[in-house]
Structure prediction request, 89 residues.
Amino acid sequence: MKIIFIIMIFSLVASSANAQDCFDRLQEAFDTRGANPVADGMHRNVYISYFEDGASRCISGKVRVEDSKIVSVFLQYDYDTYELMDAKF
Prediction:
């Protein structure tokens, strides 16, 4: 029973650390290589990082760009389904 409890705590800590790690990895990539202008259109295979309830979340998705601005963000779920992300700002 103790082993199961220890494994559960380790899994919880590892999953929260992984969420922060994904943001840190993306931030480091941008710091290292910088960013380039993005053409208008739908861009697939993007990684979206956002903060919710004090924790960072990273998920695959796609975005629509118009006039060099992101106008729509879609989060990718199982079976290659996408759902429009609600703007909370």
